[in-house]
Amino acid sequence: MASINVVVITSAWLLAETSSSPLINSLLIGAQNLPAFLPLKRSLKGMNAFFLATILLELIVVFLYFDLLPNWLVIVSTLGVAQLASYGSLICLLPITGIVLKEAAITNKSLQKTSDAGSLMGTIIGGIVYPLFKLFPPAVLLALAPFWLSKYYPQAPTNQSLENTNATQSAPPIDHWCLLQGLCIGALFGLLPLWVISIKRGSALDFSIVFGAFMLGRIFTNKALPKLSGVTHYFLCAVLIFIAFLPQTPLWVDVFIFIPLGASITSIEFELIDHLKQHGELSFRRDILFRSLAIASAISSLIMGGIGQAIGVTSAMLLVSLLFSFAALVTWRWRRPTISLSTN
Questions:
Q1: How far apart are CA 336 and CA 344, in angstroms?
Q2: What is the rounded CA–CA span in Å between residue 167 and residue 95?
Q3: Domain annotation for the chain: domains and CATH numbers
Q4: CA distances (Å), origin 152, targets 43, 99, 137, 149, 156
Q5: CA–CA gap between residue 210 and residue 251 (Å, rounded)
Q6: How many helices (H) and strands (E) does the chain have?
């Protein structure tokens, strides 16, 4: 997860530096999540594609550093590499999660906390290394460990339930409640890098701190917020987002706001994982969640890009709070089946 977030942070900042267009910047999440639309067979071989993407991304950074490519080619190349990295990480997610679950008994909360800790580390490294040491390849180095793991485990884990039901499927099904969550997340993050650099006049480090605060909230979900219903979490997100994206709100306040925001969004995802219990294995349920989130995020980020292009980034970001409020109303009106939050 650390290497994935370094790729995400670097790609986002490459686009924000080369173009101030909201629509172009929103294409990143669309490119990253496009593979989720395809019925791709899950395999550890996806790490080969991801590792190649980290190398190509470093080459793009080098070309930009020495001004060897025009901006339009940097944009196209960055989007292509982001899509390749997403393709690799998507198809290897299920088998890698299966390996982790095979090696040790672990709950969804523990698995998510470990994943988010890796993401936080990648966010910090990406935010610090990219602006200060642009020729240093952190994503390549961080991808070495999972790349070696994919070679050490040439086959998916032989857990019988995985082998007979989930691992052989080309792609998991889509859940409509997870799609709703994905629409909100895609809208939230579609223009976030551009908002930091153009509205808040921030740097790559500032974006890393804001995103890192979000990841910190995800890690300490149980401690950052009391136990609330999904409807309450959506309304809380709406309020926090409205305050964060007000032009008068200083960036340091946004950092603190993104901590409970990350915790609230993670609590919703824990509830969604429990909602998917009828699908069996935890690794498969997480794959359903992530695929649904990716598909909806791609759509909503492109919509946000178009809205931002038409009415401006600040106004578009404030509309995100309305989307979370809409999600709260939909969840309240057509409440999904409630299952105890064991997160196993």
A1: 19
A2: 7
A3: 2-333 (1.20.1250.20)
A4: 13, 11, 24, 5, 11
A5: 8
A6: 15, 0
Among the listed residues 6, 14, 16, the one whose alpha carbon sits nearest the alpha carbon of residue 192: 16
Single pTM value for the model: 0.78
For residues 78 and 26, the answer to whether their CB atoms sit within 8 Å is no
CA distances from 175 to 34, 102, 182, 276, 293 (A): 17, 26, 10, 8, 9
N-terminal to C-terminal alpha carbon distance within the chain: 21
Cβ proximity of 64 and 11 under 8 Å: no
Helices (H), 153-199: 160-161, 176-190, 192-194
**Residues in the chain, total:** 344
CA distance 78 to 339: 41
Q: Which residue has the tokens 């809380």?
A: 236
Chain segment 9-63, per-residue pLDDT in tens: 677 777 877 888 898 888 888 888 888 888 888 777 777 888 888 888 888 878 8
What confidence tier does 151 reach under pLDDT thresholds 50, 70, 90? low
pLDDT of 153 higher than 60: no
Task: Give the pLDDT score at 34.
Answer: 87
Residue 36 DSSP code: G
Tell me how far apart the alpha carbons of residues 54 and 3 are, in angstroms, rounded to a whole number.
8
Is the Cβ–Cβ distance between 93 and 50 less than 8 Å?
Answer: no
Instruction: Say how far apart CA 74 and CA 329 lie, in whole Å.
Output: 41
The one-character DSSP state at 166 is I
Which of the residue ranges 42-51, 97-106, 239-248 would you say has the lowest mean pLDDT? 97-106
Write out pLDDT tens, residues 250-293. 999 999 999 999 999 999 999 999 988 888 788 788 889 989 99
Report the amino acid identity of residue 197.
I
Token pair recorded at residue 174:
């889509």
Cβ–Cβ contacts within 10 Å for residue 120, how many? 23
Question: What's residue 311's pLDDT?
Answer: 93
* Closest alpha carbon to 181 in 11, 336, 312: 336
Rounded CA-CA distance 344/338 in Å is 15
